[in-house]
Amino acid sequence: MAGQFAHRLALIGFAVLTIRGLIIGADFAGTLKWALAAAALFFALGLVIGDLARKLAEDNARSEFKQLQAANHTD
């Protein structure tokens, strides 16, 4: 899950900076350099955020499962 999130976030960062470079008429090499740097940065950020989201979802599911188990044992 974290990998998929990281790939998507990197692609969005790359696309946004590439389009920005085209709109403002920046040189290709400079635009590509910044777009690749942004993609790498957003990929790393996506891995961290994606892993945190996975852990949060698993913890939430585990907690809810324990609550349901406790409710079934008291019946």
List the helices and strands and how they pair.
Layout: H1 2-24, H2 28-74
Helix pairs in contact: 1-2
Features:
mainly alpha, 2 helices, 0% strand
Give an overview in words.
- Helices cover 93% and strands 0% of the residues.
- The protein is mainly alpha-helical and 75 residues long.
- The chain has one domain.
- Helix 1 packs antiparallel against helix 2 (28-74).
- The two termini are 37 Å apart.
- The mean pLDDT is 93.
**Secondary structure: helix percent:** over 70%
Q: Please tally the helical runs, counting DSSP H or I stretches of 4 or more residues.
A: 2
Roughly what is the average pLDDT, rounded to an integer?
Answer: 93
Beta strand count: 0
User: How many structurally independent domains?
Assistant: 1
SSE-based structural type: mainly alpha
The end-to-end span amounts to: 37 Å
Query: H/E element string?
Result: HH
Q: What would you report as the Rg, rounded to the nearest angstrom? A: 20 Å
Strand content: under 5%
Shape: rod-shaped
Which stretches of 5+ consecutive residues score pLDDT under 50? none
Specify the biggest β-sheet.
Answer: none
